[in-house]
Write a structure and sequence with these properties.
The complex is a heterotrimer of chains A (139), B (177) and C (89).
Chain A: H1 7-33, H2 37-40, H3 42-66, H4 73-98, H5 123-138
Helix pairs in contact in A: 1-3, 3-4
Chain B: H1 17-21, H2 25-39, H3 44-60, H4 74-100, E1 109-114, H5 120-132, E2 136-141, E3 147-152, H6 158-176
Antiparallel strand pairs in B: 1-3, 2-3
Chain C: H1 2-26, H2 30-55, H3 60-84
Helix pairs in contact in C: 1-2, 2-3
The chains are: A mainly alpha (139), B mainly alpha (177), C mainly alpha (89).
Chain lengths: 139, 177, 89
């Protein structure tokens, strides 16, 4: 924080940082407010990834100007996050479907014809249930 | 991998020499670029080490890459990437406007997209694209890889959303892979 | 100005961490907790990057990179475990 930056660069970096933090807070607020899991799983991809993306771009600009060399480490981190975020969201949605997490009543459509809504149960039961189902499928 | 010996190793004797040395040129390129970016300097020794890793790692892990990545049209891939990035930004702003409304006003929906794609990598890219554009998350793929279950955060018109996904993302992917 | 912006942004990220923590304590399902853990590590990356800007040091990138990789692998491993009962098949 010692080097002097041009005013416009400093303004841009500050704006990006604040925008990123704002996106993250809105995403987390949605995470706390949404009524069911399937609606919550949208929010990390929406709010947090964009928030971190903004913060990382701010960091690229800041270090490129303060160190006078192009700093590209952050691009690697944001590329990595953009590739992995949908994979983990997909995995979590799949886990929720397979363990029978409830969704709100005004949801249109139903998951698959074979797997209709089941009451949410405690986790040990879900695990043993899925292990027996896996065994049946492989036989 | 449970298949063990039945895995087809994609280096046959009739393949050209460069293909036997570098069975996955795209993966090698990504490894080399990631190595150079991580290390941050472009000295010859570093490029040599990165090149060695780019040759070695795909070779060690080649039995995991049973479907070699083959891109038919680079310009279309670039165009697709630009469209997706633009959509991510726009859809993010829309999703944030949705979040500020009351959650009770949202109309969530499950819907099924019948896939025309057959290439596993193309299906992966489509599912990731659907999830990355906020407001839709791909939740499950049917066991024969022909239907994709998607959950939407706010879907007033289900048919229109399915048509949009098919026209905007699936049609270009069919031409790319 | 930048110093002020970084401090405000760190406060906002802390608020978002606390909201995530609330959801993690509330649950109600196992997947909700996996989701909040996933979201927590992404927020932690942002805070580490902000700390790097605040202190003017590039030493923090490696930490952020490692957290990104380990967090993703952790999320997928837990999901896989709940789905299939084991991780490496």
């Amino acid at each position: 924080m010692s080097t002097e930056l041009p005013f416009l660069v400093e303004l841009l970096v500050s704006a990006l940082i604040l925008a990123g933090a704002g996106f993250a807070v809105i995403g987390a607020l949605g995470l706390a407010r949404m009524p069911d899991f399937y609606m919550r799983v949208h929010l990390p991809t929406a709010g947090t990834t964009l928030g971190v993306g903004c913060t990382l771009s701010a960091s690229v600009i800041y270090f490129s100007f303060s160190l006078q060399t192009l700093s590209v480490h952050e691009f690697l981190i944001s590329m990595f996050l953009f590739i992995t975020a949908p994979v983990s969201s997909h995995m979590m949605a799949k886990v929720a479907l397979h363990t029978g997490v409830k969704f709100v009543d005004h949801t249109q459509g139903r998951p698959w014809p074979s797997r209709t809504q089941r009451p949410s149960r405690d986790n040990s039961q879900i695990l043993s249930d899925w292990q027996t189902r896996d065994r049946k499928e492989t036989e | 991998m449970s298949e063990g010996p039945t895995v087809r190793i994609p280096t046959e004797p009739r393949d050209p020499l460069w293909f036997r040395l570098l069975p996955h040129p795209l993966i090698s390129l990504v490894i080399l670029v990631a190595w150079l970016v991580l290390d941050g300097n472009l000295t010859p020794a570093n490029i040599l080490l990165g090149g060695f890793l780019a040759w070695l790692l795909p070779r060690i892990t080649r039995r995991f890459w049973r479907h070699p990545v083959h891109i038919r049209s680079w310009p279309k891939l670039v165009r697709f990437a630009v469209i997706v990035i633009w959509d991510i930004v726009i859809a993010n702003l829309q999703a944030i406007r949705l979040l500020l409304k009351s959650p009770q006003d949202l109309q969530p929906a499950f819907f099924v997209v019948h896939l025309e794609l057959t290439n596993p990598i193309a299906i992966t890219v489509l599912a990731n694209t659907i999830t990355l554009t906020p407001g839709t998350v791909s939740a499950d793929l049917s066991s024969r890889q022909e239907r994709l279950l998607v959950h939407g955060l706010h879907v007033p018109d289900v048919e229109a959303t399915i048509a949009l996904i098919k026209a905007r993302y699936e049609a270009p992917l069919k031409e790319i892979f | 100005m930048l110093r002020f912006a970084v401090i405000v942004a760190m406060l906002l990220f802390t608020v978002s961490l606390l909201l995530n923590l609330y959801r993690m304590v509330r649950g109600p399902d196992l997947v909700d907790r996996i989701l909040t853990l996933d979201s927590l590590y992404v927020n932690a990356i942002a805070i580490i990057i902000l700390l790097g800007i605040f202190l003017g040091s590039t030493l923090f990138f490696e930490a952020a990179m490692l957290i990104a990789m380990m967090g993703f692998v952790g999320t997928v491993a837990v999901c896989k475990y709940v789905l299939r009962g084991n991780i490496i098949e």
